[in-house]
Specification:
The complex is a heterodimer of chains A (330) and B (521). With 330 residues, chain A is of the alpha/beta class. Chain A contains 14 helices and twelve strands. Chain B has 521 residues and is mainly alpha-helical. The chains are: A alpha/beta (330), B mainly alpha (521).
């Protein structure tokens, strides 16, 4: 217990130091894996603080979808200046909340698979959802029907809290329409567990709890580049892969509006975009001059790219959620 | 003697005020829940599934706990061995054990990379998964097998020794004793044990949060949390909370009909002397059962200790910060419990005719689980201020209210006894309320108060319930921090933090429980 005393002293001291600091604070709510030590958070913070004369504080608020829930809950009272990590599937819902202000960045020069015109939401990276598996897996399915018919175990994320979870819901919906509930009913016995966020799911998969995990086509690049381990692959699905475009937005309630604007300008420069491929393991929204890192060329390229418009996604979400819960609770 | 024997004094009046305000807080939260609950939408299939799962897992957990407890209690009842007292004390320990620590330990034993699967794999068996129904039930059996065993063991001790002697002199064999002595007792005790464990398991939250795994294994309490945190759907959360209150009220009704008066305080340190069951085989079976049960209960905790102890000193600062927060919550919660408990007991002891309603006022928090109470307070607070700003005070308050029923059950009788013994004397020498409290009530109930203080601190320290509804991700308590570390698969740090939590929970309990006995008043 004696070691407690210095620890408490340290805590008190460090909060004291934080109070004494009068530099402007930019508070950015984001998802858990963004701020983890191996995620983009630390590098982005260091880069931005080099010239902003401010403190950039990332607050991890669960996975992407729970970010929006949290902001709705806090409303005008939120400390957040910027939210980073919503996606197109949540944009219509987010817009309805009236919590967000225009980003103010004009003449966007983006490398996205689709044209981007939106005044509120600014993309920072993108990727395709995919089921990731070990290359030792023998019977890799090539579509949802094969996966559902197999006895492969999968881990997915909760669509209510996680953007990959929601993405999967809409992926199945976009690919199968009215037949989506049948697919889910067949998939139900493959699902080992449903986690609240991507981090938990991927961690469980790496611990060997399942054969496949819902992640991204870019996830194998992490193992290949960071760990020199070529043993992970993403399964190419014949229905096509659902596209995720991750966006950031400014809160209307911010009292650091100019700093937030400065952050948005920075978000599309090399300092931010350059670290995305090898920390967030996604495609950067604006490809840096050096191009993508070696290893990215090995990733699978979906033949069909699926994406519902923000309004379609909002309108389908509730019904798809009911189908999902009904299928998985049997 | 201006005030007379019925006088309450300022302490008693405070007690009456609490006896009014505690139910008021609870009713206010329920009213708030009713006012926002989604009316008319009916139960969705997901809600039905949550309700079904809640009942089903609670039934399974209670049945399995009770069935396993019978042979264990019998073995403990008829065997006398060195360390028997320790084993029985150990059976009380899970009550204080933080849920997150137990779950971590169970994962270390039964998880995919756990000890059991390593053994299974060596013999080329398919590995088992701990997620879902069986994981939830396993954790519940871990927590409730000891409780059930204590219940049943007490039943055994209450069979008068003379009857066993008589049975022996009549030449009854084990089967006959079973039929004539044990079965009638079990018929009385088992339903009680079942109902209590069933009730405990219906309010399960942390276990389902970690081991549930998807809509298939979602309890009503977990669904409340998900509506609130994932979807910010207060109306839905409130509706689910009403569902949970419904379950509790129904249970209270059933319990009222079949439950015998509280069975918790009797002595169990004496084995029953019996003349049957002396055969070698039966002895071996009994000891086998005892060793098996101890292994099942100790293994997870041992695993946590082995993995966590070496990591304690290298834990990151965030863990120490969360420990600091948890200690504040635990201490505040203890102060709140005692602050409410002592005046209420004082009032009840001074006004014996009103003691029934004063005690019922405290027991009301049994009807609302702490997550439901938390939801209600959330609904009340949200329009006024950001609920997360009050995360720690609310956690302390809700935990205090959850402990209050136990506290009153244990302390009130001691106060009443002290009043009966010394009340008149105190009146005749005109003791002030303060002096009366100090010299008569506190002096005579040090043990009970110390025990309750320890209990309140330990429960609050380890709570992973209401805090999840309120807390900001960046200011977690220690249990919440461990949950996060597990989510991020930083298992080493989670193990270290678990040991820290374990030591603090039991340490606080020991400190307060033992400390109070030594206090000179």
């Amino acid at each position: 217990m004696l070691s407690l005393i210095p620890a408490i002293a340290l805590v008190l001291l460090s909060t004291g130091i934080a109070w004494a600091d009068d530099r402007p604070q930019l508070t950015v709510y984001t998802y858990d894996s963004f701020v983890s030590e191996w995620g983009p958070g630390p590098a982005v913070k260091a880069e931005f603080e080099q010239f902003c004369d401010c403190d950039l504080n990332f607050v991890a608020a669960g996975d992407g979808a729970s970010l929006l829930a949290r902001l709705k809950l806090e409303g005008e009272r939120s400390d957040a200046d910027v939210v980073l990590g919503l996606d197109t599937n949540l944009m219509a819902d987010a817009l309805d909340s009236n919590l967000f202000a225009p980003h103010g960045v004009s003449d966007l020069d983006l490398d996205l698979p689709i044209d981007w015109i939106d005044e509120i939401f600014l993309p920072f990276d993108w990727g395709y959802f995919a089921f990731v598996h070990d290359t030792a897996l023998s019977n890799v399915p090539s579509n949802f029907e094969e996966l559902a018919a197999s006895d492969l175990s999968i881990i997915i994320q909760d669509p209510r809290s996680s953007t990959p979870g929601l993405g999967l819901l809409l992926w199945v919906k976009a690919a199968y329409g009215e037949r989506a509930d049948k697919i889910w009913a067949d998939l139900a016995d493959n699902v080992v567990t449903v986690t609240p966020g991507w981090s938990e799911a991927y961690g469980l998969f790496l611990e060997g709890e399942s054969d496949m995990v819902l992640s991204y086509t870019t996830s194998p690049a992490y193992h290949l580049i960071a760990e020199e381990d070529p043993s992970k692959a993403a399964a190419l699905f014949s229905e096509g892969h659902y596209l995720q475009i991750e966006v950031a937005a400014k809160l209307t309630s911010t009292d650091n509006s100019e700093l937030a604007d400065q952050f948005f300008e920075f978000m599309l420069t090399e300092g931010f975009q350059g670290v995305i491929p090898t920390t967030n393991w996604m495609y950067p929204a604006a490809i840096p001059t050096a191009g993508l890192p070696d290893g990215f060329e090995t990733l699978i390229q979906p033949e069909t790219s699926l994406l519902l418009s923000p309004n379609e996604a909002r309108d389908l979400r509730l019904r798809a959620l009911v189908e999902w819960r009904a299928a998985l609770s049997r | 003697m201006a005030s007379g024997p019925q006088s309450l004094g300022w302490i008693g009046r405070t007690g009456i005020a609490f006896a009014v305000s505690v139910p008021t807080i609870i009713l206010l939260s329920v009213a708030a829940i009713i006012s926002v609950a989604e009316a008319g939408s009916g139960l969705t299939s997901g809600d039905w599934a949550a309700l079904r799962f809640t009942i089903w897992q609670a039934t399974l957990s209670a049945v399995i706990s009770v069935l396993l407890a019978v042979p264990l209690a019998r073995a403990l009842a008829r065997r006398n061995f060195v360390g028997r007292g320790v084993v029985i004390t150990l059976l009380g320990a899970p009550f204080l054990l933080p849920v997150i620590v137990a779950v971590f330990g169970l994962l270390a034993v039964f998880g995919r990379n756990g000890v059991l699967n390593a053994v299974l794999e060596t013999f080329a068996f398919e590995p088992i998964s701990i997620f879902g129904l069986h994981g939830v039930v396993l954790a519940h059996v871990f927590f409730n097998l000891p409780l059930a065993t204590r219940f049943i063991l007490q039943g055994w001790q209450e069979i008068p020794a003379e009857r066993f002697r008589l049975a022996a002199s009549l030449g009854m064999d084990t089967q006959a004793i079973n039929r004539h002595l044990e079965w009638p007792m079990l018929k009385k005790v088992l339903p009680c044990a079942f109902v209590v464990i069933f009730a405990v398991c219906t309010t399960t939250f942390a276990v389902a949060l970690i081991l549930g795994g998807g809509p298939r294994a979602t309890t009503v309490e977990l669904a409340i949390y998900q509506s609130l945190r994932f979807e910010f759907d207060l109306r839905r959360a409130a509706f689910l909370a009403l569902m949970q209150i419904g379950i509790m009220v129904l249970l209270a009704f059933i319990a009222h009909r079949i439950l015998a008066p509280a069975l918790l305080s009797h002595r169990m340190d004496r084995p029953v002397i019996r003349w049957d069951g002396r055969g070698f085989a039966i002895r071996m079976i009994d000891y086998g059962v005892i060793v098996g049960a101890i292994g099942f209960l100790l293994m997870p905790i041992t695993m946590v200790m082995i993995q966590g102890l070496p990591k304690i000193l290298s834990l990151p600062a965030v863990v120490w910060e969360s420990l600091f927060r948890s200690l504040i919550v635990a201490v505040s919660s203890t102060i709140i419990v005692l602050g409410i408990l002592i005046p209420m007991s004082y009032a009840a002891a001074r006004r014996p005719r009103q003691s029934v309603w004063i005690e019922s006022a405290g027991l009301m928090s049994f009807a609302v689980s702490s997550l439901v109470l938390g939801t209600g307070l959330f609904v009340v607070i949200n329009p006024i201020m950001r609920p997360d700003m009050l995360a720690l005070p609310i956690t302390a308050l809700v935990n205090a209210l959850a402990t209050l029923p136990f506290a009153l059950r244990s302390v009130l009788p001691a106060f009443c006894q002290a009043e009966a013994d010394y009340g008149r004397l105190a009146d005749s020498i005109g003791l002030t309320p303060w002096a009366r409290l100090k010299f008569i009530f506190l002096q005579r109930s040090k043990r009970e108060i110390g025990f309750i203080a320890g209990l309140a601190a330990a429960l609050s320290m380890g709570d992973l319930g209401v805090i999840t509804l309120f807390a900001l991700p960046d200011t977690p308590t220690l249990p919440l921090q461990i949950y996060r570390l597990m989510g991020a698969y930083r298992m080493q740090e989670a193990a270290g933090a678990s040991v820290l939590l374990l030591l603090c929970s039991f340490g606080l309990f020991w400190l307060l429980d033992q400390g109070a006995r030594r206090v000179e008043i």
